[in-house]
Amino acid sequence: MTAKLTALRQRPADLVGDRLPKHVAVIMDGNGRWAKQRGMPRIMGHRRGVDTLKTLLRCCDDWGVGALTAYAFSTENWGRPDDEVDFLMMLFERVLRQELKELMAENVRIRFVGNLQALPVSLQREIERAMLDTQENQGIQFTVATNYGGRQEIIQACRAIGEQIQQGEITPDQIDESMFERHLYTQGLEDPDLLIRTSGEMRISNFLLWQLAYAEMYITDTLWPDFNHHEFHQALLDYQQRHRRFGKL
Fold first, then answer.
1. Cβ(28)–Cβ(74) under 8 Å?
2. What is the pTM of this model?
3. S-S: 225 plus which of 48, 67, 95, 120, CB 3.0-4.6 Å?
């Protein structure tokens, strides 16, 4: 390992371990604009964005952030041009095949959340294999939101609970936050402490509507393909200055 790479893998000295977020969520915005600024097809921005995500995952793992959730493909993204959607599906599948060995070597647990049944069958197979192969790993929890929509997630949870009531398995007065969370795609995963959104957009775009209730937000004008370890360092420094009171004094 080179001295430069070793330095990158060490947590910066000004980041305090017990003040780091346990779980970071990221909205990876700006791939298309990044490519357009360089006279490239939009798909080149998505390809570069994969490298950025790998860098972020490595930083989280090395610096002591235990979970990373990335918004890879929303339910609304099906409205993009067919060739772009087709490329994204192919890219997800290819990256999973190529990176699984490295995920295993890095002890990463990968999980996909969303309406996965609507994805191409070949991609579903790769997703299932990746989750099965890495489920016993003890390293960072890497969650990929794919064909995911926060409103749809809440609706499916309500339907599932409604069916339990209809079957007489539970009564309405038994419903509480803990029960509701068990019916979400993300059940078993702690809520994010920090949400990062790139490209300067100030909205959450139907992402983790329930789970982000108390998350700190960090918005940067940097486009996703340019979000490197220096940018992540700044986001974590900013987070450390926050006073999280959760509605209390």
1. no
2. 0.93
3. 48
Active site residues: 29, 77
Domains of the chain: 22-149+192-240 (3.40.1180.10)
pLDDT tens digits, residue range 169-222?
A: 999 999 999 999 999 999 999 999 999 999 999 999 999 999 999 999 999 999
Within 8 A by CB and 6+ apart from 249, the residues are none
Token duo for residue 27: 């909205």
The secondary structure element, H or E, covering residue 5 is: helix 3-9
User: E strands within 86-227?
Assistant: 109-113, 141-148, 194-197, 216-219
How many Å apart are CA 42 and CA 224, to the nearest integer? Answer: 13
Asked if 20 contacts 236 with a C-beta cutoff of 8 angstroms, the reply is yes
Of 65, 50, 26, which Cα lies nearest the Cα of 204? 26
